[in-house]
Design brief:
The protein is an alpha/beta fold and 330 residues long. 28% of the residues lie in helices and 22% in strands. Bound molecules: S-adenosylmethionine (SAM). The site of S-adenosylmethionine has 23 residues, from α3.
Length: 330
């Protein structure tokens, strides 16, 4: 494999910085009582070295790339169970879609076909949970909105600082143990600060009823939406009049997810108040959920806060809620 294909196909982005090792994660690792730090996707060994620094005398690394000097193992097929070990890893991230776009799908097809997961890190997590009780894994923050089973989670730490040199993928650190729990026991931290439990956050998620007419990606609609935060914190996600988008409408496609135009039953005379209401609901939602339920987007704003994207399911729920509020105030 040429070096670029190898890097992308095997997800060889190594964890350089120790900023991921927050105090609550360190406590979890030490309280596990495990004696061996185990990385089944060991790469350059940075995570195992960090474990030696906090007192582990024994470590074990595996990797599929024989050039790296670890014991060979295809850990996406099976991770050998190791008594008394805690997994500390950063598995490869690669979505089915990116593999196709980068023409490397043939190299990873067997993993996608056999598992049905849309991203290799989810398959890696499933293999880790089969192998060990205790797991600490640095994975894409999109995990939070995924349907992956969350029963064995203990905590989620969202990192706004980037622990990698070569990729800007927004990540979080997951800690799992061997017991099944309610999501109301799963602690969610952002940059070390405790924010909420996963269950309490999920209870705040907005769901559309799909009983009002709103049609997305309709170039001649009235409602403009910038669905992603720009890097300027003053220009975050917002609803506006279509013409205020200052955007070439021929760019609005069925697949548009960043800037779009929405058609809906909003009287012209009420459009301004409707947009204001939508923005108010969105801002309250962001504040109330610490942004955690909005999809993370690559790169932070200039103030260091992670950029977010408004998914269309939540957007529809906001549009519906604004319509109902205005209806009630008639
Ligand atoms: C994102 S890197 C992480 C390395 C290390 N955990 C760290 O954070 O520094 C992922 C590693 O997994 C390895 N890898 C990719 N696919 C693998 C597989 N199927 N089995 C075992 N290792 C694999 C890659 O070679 C790479 O070294």
């Amino acid at each position: 494999m040429n070096p670029k294909t190898k890097k992308r196909g095997l997800g060889q982005y190594f964890t350089k910085e120790k900023i991921w090792l927050k105090d609550n994660i360190k406590t979890f690792i030490l309280n596990s009582g495990c004696k061996i730090a185990y990385d089944p996707f060991a790469g350059s060994g940075d995570l195992l070295r960090a474990m030696e620094e906090i007192g582990f005398k024994e470590t074990k690394g595996l990797d599929i790339d024989e050039d790296l000097g670890w014991e060979y193992c295809d850990s996406l097929l099976n991770i050998p169970s190791t008594p008394n070990a805690i997994i500390i890893t950063n598995p490869p991230y690669l979505s089915n879609y990116s593999a196709r776009r980068r023409h490397i799908f043939d190299k990873v097809e067997k993993y996608f076909k056999s598992s049905g997961y849309g991203n290799l890190y989810l398959l890696a997590l499933a293999k880790m949970l089969e192998a060990q009780e205790y797991i600490v894994a640095i994975v894409p923050e999109t995990f939070i909105n995924s349907s992956f089973p969350k029963g064995r989670l203990v905590s989620i730490n969202i990192l706004e600082e980037n622990p990698f040199d070569e990729t800007e993928t927004p990540v979080c650190v997951l800690c799992f143990d061997g017991t099944m729990k309610s999501t109301h026991e799963v602690k969610v931290y952002k940059n070390e600060h405790f924010k909420s439990t996963l269950g309490a956050l999920e209870a705040k998620r907005l769901h559309p009823r799909n009983d009002l007419y709103f049609r997305f990606n309709t170039p001649n609609g009235k409602i403009g939406l910038r669905a992603v935060d720009t890097t300027d914190p003053r220009r975050r996600i917002s609803f506006m009049k279509r013409e205020d988008l200052n955007y070439d409408m021929s760019g609005i496609k069925i697949s548009s997810r960043v800037i779009t135009v929405i058609d809906g039953d909003v009287e012209d005379g009420k459009l301004s108040i409707f947009l204001e209401t939508c923005n108010h609901i969105l801002e309250c939602y962001r504040e109330d959920t610490d942004d955690i339920l909005l999809s993370p987007f690559k790169g932070n704003m200039k103030n260091g806060v992670r950029r977010r994207r408004l998914d269309y399911e939540t957007c529809r729920a906001i549009l519906e809620k604004a319509s109902r509020q205005l209806e009630m105030n008639r």
